[in-house]
Specification:
The complex is a heterodimer of chains A (about 120) and B (about 450). Helices cover about 25% and strands about 30% of the residues of chain A. Chain A has about 120 residues and is of the alpha+beta class. Chain A has a four-stranded antiparallel beta sheet. The longest helix of chain A is centred in the first third of the chain and has 10 residues. Chain A starts with a strand and ends in a 5-residue tail after the last helix. Chain B has about 450 residues and is an alpha+beta fold. Chain B folds into two domains: about 270 residues, no CATH class; about 120 residues, Alpha-Beta Plaits (2-Layer Sandwich). In chain B, the strands form three sheets. A ten-stranded mixed beta sheet of chain B has the order 11-12-8-7-1-2-3-6-4-19, with helices on both faces. The chains are: A alpha+beta (about 120), B alpha+beta (about 450). Chains A and B meet through strand 2, strand 3, strand 4, strand 5 and helix 3 of A and helix 9, strand 14, strand 15, strand 16 and strand 18 of B.
């Protein structure tokens, strides 16, 4: 299976959510969504984002949007105006998740046009 | 009055600080029925409350008044109605300022409305006495633990008072804290006569409002595949083309930059999302997994089939409180050896502060070397040696003087650190207040709202 960055088969949007942030991972095709729904879980995202997020991660799904929504519980260094970080609002967390490398079956790649 | 088949509701301002070109071009470059503008974030309310405590006339979004001054002739000529949460913590003060603009333009007989009741700062103790605990929705702690430090308290009001203002003939509606999607939902309730029990329709209006509430963030701004977005400089702000049955199209004016496609809309639907099955608002519990999203021609996306459920008996309250002080500052360090020198600089700052008796706990301080993959820490190493590094440092804590003391040791590095340190244009970093955010709930029955309509 080819190793590709998540950005090959998904887009993302992120923003602040209290002391944490949310990262909406948007699959680029039905095939990519089916694959990610099964293979991209909260624990993987937690490990990938451990340098940014000190807390847990929860996952929600919206099939109609081909969306996996990840809630990062403690990813802003205090959150809101208490954060000292440059990215106090989690604006860049979506792109950070998209840098994750995944083994994706060729059949999924074939059915997912690159951006 | 016969019901319109399509109602065009645009959002021209995603937050206080958004470009004035958004509303100006929305009004100028195509047809529009409503111009909505969102100015309020949690922190904004506290800042506005502070301004009001110094000057009773202040406490609203002054940007709105300046914007209105600029677009007023066209807005009135075209019969566009304006709905904005520019009232902040002083809708009445905002209305006064708007009346002055109308007077300046010689416009008599224009109806301006305000919605009040969201600001419960002065009612807090009364509400607590009635049994409200204002438990922090994240931590469960009662408000009593920070009661003496509260600086603002505002309820996210229903969209129905906005509809009432429009029913009563208002051309400009100014609210304080309501929900952001309510700015769009209110006009739709007014136009289509939606009822408080029409949960699917109210949910549709809420989804529409959520999509456009951040302005250009649904028309190609902050979009993953940014290279594919045409002409972002001239990005068009979003317009909802709504109909009475709840189906709607999101689009933008023809000839503007940016893009509206299913992906751009899905991007924004995911923004600040929690559980997509339950998007809780004062008027409805909207299900963001319920509807279909379909491309409907160039720069048009159609949404239909939105479902909603009955709302809860409580409103959300946004409370802010004093939570200490912080200061951040930065210097630019050039190469050669930019990163090594920046690290030495940071080390020098902490050592000099310690020498003078100022030490900061690990959770009270931060050093970032911008240019070395700070935003994506731990994910990917920075490529090669950076030619320049921006050294960014900050501290926080309860003691204002201790935070200010830090700010005095950054700039001296220019002459007393390694060579090639510059970029101190901002001067000495000064302590600014940390505004704590306390989300809570309050019984709807205890929060009366009031609509007032005045003619210029």
């Amino acid at each position: 299976m080819p190793l590709v960055p998540l950005s090959r088969i998904a887009a993302a949007r992120s923003g602040d959510k209290g002391a944490g942030s949310n990262v909406g991972v948007l699959a680029r095709s039905d095939a990519a969504y089916a694959f990610l729904k099964e293979h991209l879980d909260a624990e993987q995202v937690r490990r990938h984002m451990a340098g940014i997020n000190a807390g847990g991660v929860r996952r929600f799904e919206a099939d109609n949007l081909r969306l996996l929504n990840f809630l990062l519980e403690d990813s802003l260094g205090g959150g809101g105006s208490a954060s000292l970080r440059t990215d106090a609002q989690g604006k860049t967390h979506g792109l950070a998740v998209l840098r994750m490398e995944l083994d994706v079956p060729q059949s999924v790649l074939d059915r997912t046009p690159p951006p | 009055m016969p019901q319109k088949e399509k109602v065009l509701v645009a959002n021209g301002q995603g937050f206080w600080g958004d470009s004035i070109l958004g509303p100006v071009r929305l009004v100028r470059e195509g047809p529009l029925d409503y111009l909505t503008l969102d100015y309020l974030a949690e922190v904004t309310m506290s800042i506005l409350q502070k301004l009001k405590s110094r000057n009773p006339e202040a406490g609203y979004a002054t940007d709105f008044v300046e914007m209105l001054d600029r677009v007023l002739p066209e807005v009135l000529e075209k019969g566009i109605k304006v709905v904005a949460n520019a009232g902040g913590v002083n809708p009445r003060g905002c209305m006064k300022a708007v009346m002055k603009v109308l007077e300046k333009h010689g416009r008599k007989g224009v109806s301006v409305a305000i919605v009040e009741g969201d600001d419960i700062l002065s009612r807090l103790d009364e509400l607590i006495a009635q049994g409200e605990v204002f438990r922090n929705m994240d931590t469960g702690a009662p408000l009593a633990s920070i009661r003496d430090r509260v600086t603002s308290a505002n309820v996210y009001l229903s969209a129905f008072p906005i509809a009432e203002a429009l029913d009563r003939g208002a051309q400009i509606v100014i609210t304080g804290r309501g929900t952001d999607p309510g700015l769009v939902l209110g006009p739709l309730i007014h136009e289509f006569g939606w009822k408080a029990s029409d949960y699917d329709l109210l949910a549709a209006g809420t989804v529409a409002g959520h999509i456009v509430e951040c302005g250009a963030q649904c028309t190609g701004g902050n979009f993953t595949d940014w290279r594919s977005v045409p002409d972002l400089a001239r990005v068009g702000y979003p317009i909802v083309e709504a109909s009475a049955d709840g189906a709607f199209v999101v689009t933008k004016h023809a000839g503007t930059g940016g893009l509206v496609d299913a992906s751009a809309i899905a991007h924004q639907l995911a923004y600040e999302m929690g559980d997509p099955r339950h998007y809780l608002g004062p008027d409805v519990d909207a299900d963001f997994t319920s509807f279909a999203l379909a491309d409907d021609g160039k720069d048009r996306v159609r949404i239909s089939g939105v479902r909603g459920r009955a709302p809860t008996p409580t409103y959300k309250v946004s409370i802010s409180y004093e939570d200490g002080w912080k200061a951040t500052g930065q210097l630019t360090v050039s190469g050669p050896d930019a990163l090594d020198k920046a690290k030495l600089c940071a080390d020098i700052v902490w050592k000099r502060l310690a020498m003078d008796g100022y030490e900061y706990a690990p959770e009270e301080k931060l050093v970032e070397f911008l240019g070395t993959n700070v935003c994506h820490a731990g994910i990917e190493a920075a490529a090669g040696t950076p030619s320049d590094v921006v050294l960014r440092m900050g501290v926080k804590g309860a003691d204002r003087d201790k935070v200010d003391r830090f700010g005095m040791e950054l700039v001296p590095l220019v002459t007393s650190g390694p060579p090639g340190v510059t970029g101190f244009a901002g001067g000495r970093p000064k302590a600014t207040e940390i505004i704590g955010y306390w989300p809570a709930l309050v019984a709807k029955s205890r929060i009366p709202t009031r609509v007032e309509v005045v003619r210029s």
